[in-house]
Amino acid sequence: MTLDWPELDLTRLSGVGVGGVDGRGALASSRILHVALARSGPRLLQPAEFDVSQTLVEPAASFSSFLDKAAEPRAGIIVPVLEGDGLEVLACMLDVRQDIVRGIGAFLSEAERRRAEGLKSERDRRRFIVSRGQLRQILASRLGVSPSDVELEYGQLGKPQLSLRMPSRNLHFSVSRSGDVAVVALSTGQEVGVDIEAVLTVPEADEIAALCFSASDYESYAALGPDDRLEGFFRRWTRLEAISKGLGCGLGYPSSWDEKDWVVRSFVPKTGYLGSVVVRK
Fold first, then answer.
1. Is residue 91 a contact partner of residue 270, using CB atoms and an 8 Å limit?
2. How far is 1 from 30, CA to CA, in rounded Å?
3. Domain-embedded: residue 167
4. CA 76 to CA 219: how far, in whole Å?
5. Which one of 4, 183, 200, 233 is most buried, by most CB atoms within 10 A?
6. 153 CB contacts (<8 Å, ≥6 apart)?
7. Is residue 75 part of a domain?
8. SS3 (DSSP) at 163
């Protein structure tokens, strides 16, 4: 995962037992996951949308049997993934032509340009610029302003939100990036959080699940068969990240919350990726 603001940070999860995150840990779990993802190849999940229950009870059939054909996002084009009941999730590709990067980059604020310049990798700079520029375009279309006139503020832990000076104070959004894909979730009136991950083989998934998942989620995850275990891991992982982002905190930060306060939907924004979006009830 690539962070626009502090999403789930496994650097804080070491030392947490089965039953959930308590924010006391340090570097071990983050390194486990990110090293594992870096050395893995993608699993080919086909794009689709599907609902998941609040308790994430697994279907009897294979996860893949629920996946239908859907349009893949293309470079420079924003594609709707989910919509309805005041919720929208839009996906876009981040690896685009340099002329598109330059055009989108013109929308960024001075602070965003400095942040992009501070990234070491040219690929990371390009992806940050496109992700933030596309976010500005999406918000601008909803607010009736120019993308460069969209004003963002940041919460205590870095979560971006619309400035109080913007025309609509009722529009909530959340952003997630992974690999060459970004998604933006929009909600009218309710807090929203979204997370996507490239679905890669994680040899240490069982250990990470024991550190991060609630007792009930870990029990249901552990009961999965080998063919369903990888998708089951990422469905729970993205849900936890999405809730933490809806709350405006990293998952490792101490926080009091109840998963039953959130409506959860899972989706596949692009082949090889899986995401969750949550909206506060």
1. yes
2. 11
3. yes
4. 42
5. 183
6. 160, 161, 162, 163, 164
7. yes
8. coil
CATH, residue 159: 3.90.470.20
Count the Cβ atoms, other than its own, within 10 Å of residue 19. Answer: 15
Do 253 and 12 contact (CB within 8 A), yes or no? Answer: yes
Q: Which residue has the tokens 């909530």?
A: 172
Question: Domain for residue 5, yes or no?
Answer: no
The DSSP string of 91-159 is: EEES---HHHHHHHHTTS-HHHHHHHHT-SSHHHHHHHHHHHHHHHHHHHHHHTS-GGG--EEE-TT--
107 contacts 118 by C-beta, under 8 angstroms = no
pLDDT of residue 75: 64
- What is the count of structural domains for the chain? 1
Q: Does residue 4 sit within a domain?
A: no
Three-class secondary structure of residue 222 per DSSP: helix
Closest CA to 211 of 26, 81, 2, 68: 26
Amino acid at 55: T
pLDDT tens-digit map of 36-68: 454 454 444 444 333 333 333 333 333 343 333
The pTM of the whole model exceeds 0.85? no
* Region at 49 (left for phi over 0; alpha for psi -120 to 50; beta for the rest): beta
- Residue 252 pLDDT: 57
Q: With the C-alpha atoms ordered 138, 243, 275, 28, is the resulting torsion angle positive or negative? A: positive
Structure tokens at 53: 């229950």
Sequence letter at residue 162? L
Q: Identify the band that residue 118 occupies on the pLDDT scale cut at 50, 70 and 90.
A: very high
Mean predicted confidence (pLDDT) in 179-202: 94
Stronger pLDDT, 172 or 54, i.e. the higher one:
172
Domain with 131, as residue range(s), is 10-280
